[in-house]
């Protein structure tokens, strides 16, 4: 059997239907129940990738990407997932890409890095460009992980150690871009032994048509592909903390 045939079989039909046990198989949990167990809040974390003002905000250095993230609804769904995580006891980590004004420590070993240096909006540490973009909320218990180099929000950052210290084994990955940072995060998570979950409607890349192709032909081979609504519904079924809507106003 050729590698192409093997990959084709791995992603046909829909990854959510194919990667998990059949609903007719009474000896195994249904796809829905499998995800509920996989996404139990006490062993799960939500990672938002480069959902920062200088990337997906109104003054983005990458306006095409920012437009796709907003117009597709992906950024809004990231925000909805963050709210659901806050309400159900799921740890949230925000991965931010930034650089020093003097460029020290920044990568220059790829065309992308050199192009970033010429952009009119620079992701400088401490600037508005590296603040989390609206409408994504940030709570005091959230962890913000900043990197000065590389392509991945996980490799060479503190994310792995933080997740292990928190007892997390499942990582829900959202944000941008489906071209580079999202697949890098998924591959790194899997290589480190985590189960990666990708809500396909909460990531974005350019052009817009590229994202579903990346999901189907690459990410579905290594991650559990689902939707933002399904992730939030699973969290609510097994929430470890009461909803914040039940707390008295301060």
Task: Jot down its keywords.
single chain, 250 residues, alpha/beta, seven-stranded parallel beta sheet, 11 helices, 14% strand, globular
Q: Summary?
A:
36% of the residues lie in helices and 14% in strands. The chain has 250 residues and is of the alpha/beta class.
Strands, count: 7
Radius of gyration: 18 Å
| Alpha-beta classification | alpha/beta
The number of distinct helices, counting runs of at least 4 residues, comes to: 11
Low-confidence stretches: 12-31, 243-250
Q: Which of globular, elongated, flat, extended, rod-shaped describes the shape?
A: globular
Percent strand: 5-15%
Helix content: 25-40%
Q: Can you describe what's shown?
A:
This protein has 250 residues and is an alpha/beta fold. The chain has eleven helices and seven strands. The chain is globular, with a radius of gyration of 18 Å. The C terminus is likely disordered. Strand 4, helix 9 and strand 5 form a beta-alpha-beta unit.
Question: Topology of this protein?
Answer:
Elements (H helix, E strand, L loop, with lengths): L2 H8 L4 H4 L12 H8 L5 E6 L3 H4 L6 H9 L2 H15 L2 E7 L13 H6 L26 E5 L11 H8 L3 E7 L4 H11 L3 E5 L3 E2 L5 H8 L6 E3 L1 H10 L13
Helix pairs in contact: 3-11, 6-11
């Amino acid at each position: 059997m050729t590698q192409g045939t093997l990959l084709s079989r791995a992603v046909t039909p829909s990854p959510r239907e194919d990667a998990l046990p059949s609903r007719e198989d009474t000896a195994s949990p249904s796809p829905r129940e499998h995800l509920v167990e996989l996404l139990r809040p006490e062993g799960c974390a939500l990672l938002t990738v480069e959902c920062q003002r200088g990337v997906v905000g109104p003054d983005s250095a990458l306006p095409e990407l920012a437009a796709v993230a907003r117009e597709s609804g992906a950024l809004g769904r990231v925000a909805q997932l963050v709210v659901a995580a806050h309400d159900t006891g799921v740890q949230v980590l925000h991965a931010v890409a930034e650089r020093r004004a003097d460029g020290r420590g920044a990568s220059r070993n790829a065309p992308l890095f050199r192009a970033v240096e010429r952009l009119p909006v620079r992701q400088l540490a401490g600037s508005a460009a590296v603040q989390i973009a609206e409408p994504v909320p940030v709570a005091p218990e959230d962890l913000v992980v900043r990197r000065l180099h590389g392509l991945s929000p996980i490799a060479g950052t503190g994310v792995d150690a933080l997740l292990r210290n928190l007892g997390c084994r499942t990582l829900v990955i959202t944000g941008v871009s489906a071209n580079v940072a999202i697949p890098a995060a998924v591959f790194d998570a899997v290589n480190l032994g985590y189960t990666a979950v990708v809500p396909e409607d909460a990531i974005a890349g350019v052009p817009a048509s590229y994202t579903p192709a990346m999901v189907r032909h690459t990410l579905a081979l290594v991650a559990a592909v689902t939707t933002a609504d399904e992730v939030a519904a699973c969290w609510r079924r097994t929430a470890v903390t009461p909803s914040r809507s039940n707390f008295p106003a301060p």
